[in-house]
Amino acid sequence: MPRTSRNAAKKHPRKGKSAESAHPKRPAESLPASALSKSQLLDLYRYLKLNRMIEERLSALYRQGKVQGGLYSSKGQEAISVGSAYALATQDVLAPMIRNLGAMLVRGVNPVEFFLQYMQKEGSPCKGRDTSLHFGGIDRGFVPPISHLGTLIPVLSGVALAGRMQGKNLVALTYIGDGATSTGDFHEGLSLASVRRLPLVVLIENNRWAYSTPVSAQSLLLDLADKARAYGIPQGVVDGNDVLAVHEATSRAADLARRGQGPVLLEAKTMRMRGHSEHDDAWYVPEEERRFWEKRDPILLYEKHLLGTGVAIKDELSRIESACAAQIDADLAIAEAAPFPRPESCVEDIYAPEQDASEGLAEEAPRAARRS
Amino acid sequence: MPRTSRNAAKKHPRKGKSAESAHPKRPAESLPASALSKSQLLDLYRYLKLNRMIEERLSALYRQGKVQGGLYSSKGQEAISVGSAYALATQDVLAPMIRNLGAMLVRGVNPVEFFLQYMQKEGSPCKGRDTSLHFGGIDRGFVPPISHLGTLIPVLSGVALAGRMQGKNLVALTYIGDGATSTGDFHEGLSLASVRRLPLVVLIENNRWAYSTPVSAQSLLLDLADKARAYGIPQGVVDGNDVLAVHEATSRAADLARRGQGPVLLEAKTMRMRGHSEHDDAWYVPEEERRFWEKRDPILLYEKHLLGTGVAIKDELSRIESACAAQIDADLAIAEAAPFPRPESCVEDIYAPEQDASEGLAEEAPRAARRS
Amino acid sequence: MGEPITYLEAIRQGLWEEMERDERVFMLGEDIGVYGGAFKVTKGFLEKFGQDRIIDTPIAESGIVGAAIGASLMGMRPVAEMQFIDFIACAFNQITNFAAKSRWRYGAGVPIVIRGPSGGGVRGGPFHSQNPEMYYVHTPGLKVVAPGTTYDAKGLIKAAIRDEDPVIYLEHKYLYRLPRIKEALPEEDYVVPIGKAALRREGKDISMITYGAMQLHCMDAAETLDKEGVSSEVLDLRTLLPLDAEAIEATTKKTGKVLIVHEDTRTGGIAGEITALINERAFEFLDGPVTRVTSPDAPVPYSAALEDYFLPNSTKVLQAARGLLSY
Amino acid sequence: MGEPITYLEAIRQGLWEEMERDERVFMLGEDIGVYGGAFKVTKGFLEKFGQDRIIDTPIAESGIVGAAIGASLMGMRPVAEMQFIDFIACAFNQITNFAAKSRWRYGAGVPIVIRGPSGGGVRGGPFHSQNPEMYYVHTPGLKVVAPGTTYDAKGLIKAAIRDEDPVIYLEHKYLYRLPRIKEALPEEDYVVPIGKAALRREGKDISMITYGAMQLHCMDAAETLDKEGVSSEVLDLRTLLPLDAEAIEATTKKTGKVLIVHEDTRTGGIAGEITALINERAFEFLDGPVTRVTSPDAPVPYSAALEDYFLPNSTKVLQAARGLLSY
Ligand SMILES: Cc1ncc(C[n+]2csc(CCOP(=O)(O)OP(=O)(O)O)c2C)c(N)n1
Ligand SMILES: Cc1ncc(C[n+]2csc(CCOP(=O)(O)OP(=O)(O)O)c2C)c(N)n1
Ligand SMILES: [Mg+2]
Ligand SMILES: [Mg+2]
């Protein structure tokens, strides 16, 4: 006869009602004596600030009509992007979602690229063809998303699979929203990855909302990380507003995955502090909920931590901020001056340049693909 | 930092290695002092036999070339179809999969319909257009499957949703194979159904194989019912070769679902005793595994139970068997004699007969749709 | 007749009136309730009809369409919204294999409507601008409609909801709030029949066959040609499946020169099907090759510079028309 | 030249040789390993290439294609099997939105092959007999091939695997073991170039444009016409995207009478696209309407009585040809 599972009886707190109770208690093991050096700790700070400041600038450009279409803010979630990407090794592959600008910064994308991209310039990574954070190739350690949510989970499983075949010892990391964990692709990707124990880390950014839909209308679970139980894989929950906790949790998850214990499903609890995209003022978010999370701004928290633990003094942080601002100004100027793409370029590159498969044979020596 | 979930460490027993250890211990609560009357108990026996005997006859017809395409046997799994369908109320809706002929019998399908259908006769439920158990409409309490696995889970969610809107107090029951629990639709359907707590029962027939693929290559879980944990819904595991246990478990699941505690995910452990379909001799199934399950034949077990508990004597059972055989002979004769469909009928019924939407207005009084 | 309203408002009214008329009608989709839909098509519906008939779902398009199918089998009339029609790709299997084939397989109609914003022109990029019509036009058992006017937007959503078969209703997001097509609509209930094209303009020298937002470019081009003494006929298909073959035949026989204009990409676009129909039904009336103006074979680009190049417009229509006229 | 082999064996050989030639090639799909595939196309592969390169997957077509995409981005050459091509519907989104658009979007080629048994004639019913080509022909960025001969089956699978872009490889299950098309193949490595049609038969009175299993019916009809003194040209497209427009144009200009024969359903089938191309490129050479012989607009029926009525055959081809010839 049916047993009732752990979560079946509990009701998810309705939105707004108990914003605080839903906030995870800091798991003891996620607050390690950080192994990061001072310069690394300040690195994280710089990325957090850069992330926030670039997005603020994009938002201004949007209001000026220079950025069109969807513009998605990661305000309040920067610690997840930055902390997780910072935990990766060089050979690892990261697939950002639309709120992971910070992760791309950490992995080496220059601010100018975001401006070029959003302003649809010729020299932009997508040559003006695609929008948002849909850029960066495998040569740079990225797989860019498409808009269709969930699709990256199978795709990154394939990256992890190939990485293993090629003996690269890599971990594939991607993000997914609370809402997108309802997609079929989330399930198919994790099904595939789990039976082969692929080195994949899936980080759920539970920012409490999917557009206007609260998590409670998406799932009965309190912890979306519990979805791991459907695959028999390791799971974890982390405070998504604590950059060090995210870094630590991702490091351990990546470790597990690299050692063949993957895939790992990690959930970072956080809050989307702006609307779904620029046009949305998020009127549906209860005031109380917003206020609660405002106090937990990840950058503020981290500043407090740095100052409180004596890692840095106020002045150092201000200097970092100024440097970020200067870089952004310079990069934005470049992007503003850049030309728009040639109109007819939009029909190019549908296919690879013509190749003759039989001719290709000789030149194209099979690349070694080591089997693990 | 990632916690390791309960199942992550355990290895699924490799196929064949430990067929017995993988067999579920009979959960104590699934062996109740049965509330079924003698005539009901014999009813179950009759359905089990009929199920087995009809399929044997279909198999013979296949060898004669009178049945073409895929023919899927439920040998060894009859107790699941029969026990579960017998637990439903009249208003409930059942969606069979290709190995649920027994469930259709219980819900009132006549043997002749299977013969007509598989022999592609004009008077068959699908008029020769579709194959297998893809028939029976909502007017008879059925939603027939398509071949694409997983699709019924969202569809039955919709049935459950509509049933609630219409105040019908119904439960929607469908089946899914161990393999098909990997499909995206399984996940999307349960995601939808769970947040609305729809009156849906999904019965996983874990027959250890998906075509040639063992469960261990489909999932790391020992109990597929644990997939319920991804949705925070009630779950259960039952011995799929014990018709009374299946009946009991389904009754309780249906009860839970009807009371708004659904959806419920039930797993019946069993074994596919023949190949994937008629052409497949299942050479890949280890001999030891096959032998273990042969001894657990659900019809044999149930006969022993009936005789052992004194519910029936040998003679009564034989009489039931003879009656089944007689009915099958008669029905098969009808089906054999039936004509094939008019060739040109295959292009009919693509759309409803022409209607004028504006004319329709007056006649078509809105059917009441009570909101729950 | 009331005040002139937008195309979007016409859809909203059509949905609203059908929900009022028939309790079997209900809606499901992402953010359609509390939020009123990404484009506000269902604003106010939750308040009026309640959360049992306006269902905010998880992000699961295949699940949404599957649930709509199941509910329709139970006698309900579900209307499923795709937040952008691009995401219908995730429900492709449920639509083409479950919904489209049920009636034919065993007699069970699946009266569902799947609607959502399609088309380009709003800088949405490759995943928020698609024209998915042909994937469904090529699937027997479905119906596909694509209104290009405010009147039709309302009349076709009503017809779609009342239809006994699954209907894909493509609303063009470029038209949603376009002042130019605002229109005062009849106070009374009306439907636009599925399967009937509309002659937007009568002429004798050339036929432009089109639908959706492209109709505007055809009308503009026709206007210009008119000043040059060329008389153009503009046929708005409105329904893409089943096609109004009679209307296509009639206009071809009348002018002998046919230009087909669609926003969808060229190869495998509906222009091919129409060309084949014309060959079969009116070959001897052709005074020149059936000619296509379409988007090129590429995804829809994001940048304004690119998208303007990509999409058909009245200049391209004019150019093609002149070429055909001088054949 | 060795012994004559079947179409299925040709596919098997092509896959095998590519796996041997290039370590980046690997396969994934349901039951392809231990079982060797539902139709035994990959029999013996697991033993030879091991379970790292022959991957039995869970039942998850979208997952399979997604994983193939990811691996291809990493430089691998995945070949994904759909157990029946009908199940490709479940992977529609990954194929049309992820695989097809990546190169155009940001320069990343997705060299994957998706292959599986398509087509009717084996009493498979509506879900084991589909011809899904047009869903992919209408998607820029993909390539679609459909070999109709044993030689092409091998040459095209090799070309598909070596191609830098995503290729849908449709193998016709009716041809798998058909004795009639057994053929001895060259010992040496060869490919059949994607995008090139093959003239199976030269003629001057009428052109039959076709592909896949329908080619046989065209050849039979041509044979019969030959006895009546009518000389037919049979053009086997082999690749459906990109279409060999030059070959289509050439045969049209030669005979002036074009019959297009495909097993796929009519509305939105490739005949329409070809008709449009002919109108654009060779209108003035037409001596009669471009004519279609196709399956009707319905799912593929199960019963022999129905399926035989449903599918095109040489009688229908002959009848249409005679009609066109007498135009
Ligand atoms: C398959 C699919 N369906 C619908 C959408 C439209 N859409 C874009 S973002 C979004 C909400 C996503 O919520 P969540 O996954 O929680 O991510 P978040 O925006 O909170 O980061 C929706 C519905 C989409 N992009 N893809
Ligand atoms: C989406 C989809 N993919 C593949 C198939 C082909 N197929 C038919 S049955 C089957 C195995 C099903 O296994 P399981 O779900 O365990 O059910 P069982 O056959 O054991 O009852 C497969 C792969 C299918 N029908 N649908
Ligand atoms: Mg979210
Ligand atoms: Mg099974």
Please characterize this protein's 3D structure.
The complex is a heterotetramer, with two copies of chain A (372 residues) and two copies of chain C (327 residues). Chain A is of the alpha/beta class. Chain A has a single domain (33-371), classed as Thiamin diphosphate (ThDP)-binding fold, Pyr/PP domains (Rossmann fold, 3-Layer(aba) Sandwich), CATH 3.40.50.970. Chain A is 38% helix and 8% strand. Chain A is built from eleven helices and seven strands. In chain A, strands 1-2-3-7-6 form a five-stranded parallel β-sheet, with helices on both faces. Chain A is globular. The relative contact order of chain A is 0.16. The model of chain A is unreliable at 1-33 and 359-372 (pLDDT under 50). Chain C is α/β, with parallel strands linked by helices and 327 residues long. Chain C folds into two domains: 7-181, Thiamin diphosphate (ThDP)-binding fold, Pyr/PP domains (Rossmann fold), CATH 3.40.50; 198-325, 3-Layer(aba) Sandwich (Rossmann fold), CATH 3.40.50. Chain C has helices spanning 7-21, 45-49, 61-73, 92-99, 102-106, 133-137, 150-162, 214-227, 245-255, 270-282, 304-310, 314-325, and strands spanning 4-5, 25-29, 54-56, 77-81, 113-118, 143-145, 167-172, 183-184, 198-201, 206-210, 232-236, 239-241, 258-265, 291-295. In chain C, helix 1 runs parallel beside helix 7 and helix 8 crosses helix 12. Classes of the chains: A alpha/beta (372), C alpha/beta (327). The interface between B and C is large, with 56 and 56 residues.
Report the portion of residues of chain A in β strands. 5-15%
CATH class of chain A: Alpha Beta
Which spans of chain C of ≥5 residues are poorly predicted at pLDDT below 50? none
User: What's the overall geometry of chain A?
Assistant: globular
The count of helical stretches of chain A stands at 11
